[in-house]
Design brief:
By secondary structure, the chain is of the alpha+beta class. The protein contains 26 helices and 20 strands.
Length: 652
């Protein structure tokens, strides 16, 4: 039977099995895909024999076994095939249930599995998003990818091209997708999805891997198969040769937004109140036209409408429909004296958790729980530490205020946002805290974690504060390096102490107008490493980054207390300058200044110096330095980090 004939017959025969599993999305996805594959393997004349052969009755009988297998794989981390226990529900043996699935598959489909997994992931997301330097194009690129991933693939590929139920898609978000498809159509789905992305964006691509999987493995051992397919996906990404290319001829004018492709159309965006006329390429035009980001707008509105106190705090009485998005980074930095912050967070070892999810139900629930948790922690902290900012004049679309932040990536277990520098570190700390708490408060995340011993759960973060005139793609490169260093420190800590591990954060504050051209490692060395002339073998470090979350939270507390106690900027700068002297001289200067400052401030300093959070047992304390037990010539202090955080705390 051809695909078009199977589609028509599938629509006609859907009522036979819709009632069987309409309340269970996961069972419905499997049963409907089995039915579609059965039709594809038949001749048109054989369709009428489905009723006579008892196909629908056998599907009906298969549903309880399938539901049982899905639920048992949720209860037990081991494969249901390995279990010989009798369950409480009906006394059925789990092995017998899974064998029933295998026998059904062999009887109707032979040795060739009827179902295939489809795993997809968008290629080089941030290269596409940060290709142009302006906020409207960055926002539009992010929105376009979000729209493709969340809605268009389902509507325009699965439903429109193949008449397939949307329930075949098990997970979508963060540029990734997992679906179940009939094995006969796996190549067709792979080609259709990979062709759709460049068709809509011209330059963005997606890599798809498909392959047949036995029915009982889908129901009871999905995590290992997804992990295997992810490995194949990574290999195929590396081997990908065909990427969209646009030739730039000598006599062709370049696009004024990206400077990469030939321009072909004049464009003036009245919606964003940009008066200039731009000569742009088609790819940048599509990004600019998607600048309004309706999906994120709706998520934000929904969240605020569900939390009245946060809505009042954020909007301050302004109609939320009158609040729109900003035009450039300077509007975000407007509330922080021209400084902005980019925060990039990524869940730690989420792949290990996914590998333990042995069923469609568990995978789908975990993915949705993770997606909602990420959105919650972002919107909650944005509404807590920022609020709407008025435009200098009313815009053409009637908006009077704008959101002082930008969501670049918001899906799955990773996020990338741009916020005002004032309060950025509290936002980062709040997101880390709430993501870690989700292991106890979000049941869809709590279930798989209960089956794992010594599984670290948290989110590592890289954060950069810099002037708002820095190029956005350069900011992202630095933040990416900060996140990478935080991840490396986290993995090292997990390897040493699995039970006591926590997430790490690395941050950097750049205040000069010049743009550094060195890597984060070299930049940190130049800014915070001091060499002693009197003792050349000794090294002083004016930072202890990256910090575990518990220490970072303590630093914020001490920074807040020092500001509340009225530590003067002149005193702060004098102590900071003294730290750049040799160790003995810096210690003498600091002790002298402690005697001269107000007693309340001096008390906070003494608490900070002797806080056990910053003084592990393997370190010696040499006021205000800490000597590393493994390296007797290495001394470090957290004072400068506290001073840097003080300047960008949220206004009390």
């Amino acid at each position: 039977m051809t695909v078009s004939e199977a589609r028509a017959t599938f629509d006609d025969t859907k009522p036979h099995f819709d009632v069987l599993c309409s309340e269970n999305t996961c069972v419905y996805s499997i049963v409907s895909a089995l039915h579609f594959e059965r039709l594809l393997r038949m001749d048109v004349a054989e369709v009428d024999t489905l009723e006579d052969t008892g196909w629908y009755k056998q599907l009906n009988a298969l549903v309880p076994a399938m539901s049982f297998a899905l639920d048992s794989s949720q209860r037990n981390s081991k494969s249901a095939l390995m279990s010989t226990r009798q369950t409480k529900e009906g006394g059925e043996d789990e092995t017998a249930r899974t064998e029933q699935l295998a026998q059904f598959e062999k009887k109707h489909f032979g040795v060739s599995p009827p179902l295939a997994l489809c795993v997809a992931d968008t290629d080089r997301v941030h290269e596409y998003v940060f290709e142009a330097a302006r906020i409207p194009e960055v926002r539009g690129a992010s929105a376009l990818l979000e729209r493709l991933n969340e809605t268009e693939i389902a509507c325009n590929v699965f439903i429109e091209q193949f008449s397939a139920p949307e329930q075949w898609i098990i997970y979508r978000g963060g540029g990734s997708l997992l679906a179940i498809v009939p094995a006969s159509l796996q190549k067709s789905f792979q080609d259709a999805i990979e062709e759709y992305y460049p068709k809509r964006t011209l330059t963005a691509t997606i890599t798809v891997v498909t392959g047949p999987v036995p029915l009982k493995e889908i129901c009871t051992n999905l995590g290992n198969w997804v992990d295997k397919f992810s490995y194949y996906l990574d290999i195929r990404k590396r081997q990908k040769l065909n990427v969209p290319h646009f030739q730039m001829l000598p006599y062709v004018e370049q696009c004024q937004l990206c400077g990469i492709r030939p321009a072909y159309k004049h464009y003036s965006s009245e919606e964003t109140d940009v008066s200039e006329k731009l000569f742009v390429c088609d790819a940048c035009l599509r990004k600019r036209q998607a600048w309004d980001k309706p999906e994120v707008t709706e998520w934000l509105k929904k969240y605020l409408n569900e939390h009245d106190s946060l809505k009042e705090l954020y909007t301050q009485g302004v109609d939320i429909d009158k609040i729109t998005w900003c035009n450039d980074l300077s509007e975000i930095g407007r509330t922080s004296n021209g400084y902005i912050a980019m925060i990039y967070g990524d869940g730690d070892d989420i792949g290990k958790v996914r590998k333990q999810l042995n069923s469609l139900k568990g995978f789908s629930e975990f993915a949705e729980g993770l997606k909602e948790t990420t959105r919650h922690i972002v919107f909650h902290n944005l509404a807590t530490y920022t609020n709407r900012v008025p435009f200098s004049q009313r815009r053409r679309d009637g908006s009077t205020h704008y959101h002082p932040f930008e969501t670049i990536t918001l899906g799955g277990d990773d996020l990338c946002i741009i916020v005002p520098a004032q309060g950025a570190m509290e936002i980062a700390a709040g997101m880390m805290r709430e993501f870690a708490q989700a292991a106890k408060t979000e049941p869809r995340i709590q279930k798989p974690l209960q089956r794992l011993k010594h599984q670290h759960w948290g989110m590592s973060v890289g954060a950069l504060i810099c002037p708002d005139h820095f190029p956005i793609y350069y900011i992202y490169e630095l933040v990416q390096e900060l996140l990478k260093s935080a991840k490396q420190r986290m993995r090292k800590a997990v390897w040493k102490e699995p039970d006591a591990s926590e997430s790490y954060i690395n941050f950097l504050i750049l205040k000069g107008s010049a743009i550094p051209r060195t890597a984060i490692k070299d930049l940190t060395k130049d800014l915070y490493e001091i060499h002693s002339y009197s003792m050349p073998e000794e090294k002083q470090f004016l930072t202890e980054r990256p910090y575990p979350f518990s220490k970072f939270e303590k630093l914020l507390q001490y920074a807040r207390r020092l500001r509340q106690e009225g530590l003067l900027p002149t005193q702060l700068h004098a102590i900071a300058r003294a730290l750049y002297e040799e160790r003995e001289q810096a210690t003498f200067d600091l002790m002298m200044r402690l005697q001269r400052m107000p007693q309340a401030c001096a008390h906070v300093f003494r608490e900070l110096f002797f806080d056990e959070t910053f003084l592990p047992g393997n370190q010696r304390y040499l006021f205000p330095w800490r000597q590393d037990a493994d390296n007797q010539n290495k001394f470090s202090t957290v004072l400068l980090d506290v001073f840097e955080l003080m300047e960008f705390l949220h206004h009390l």
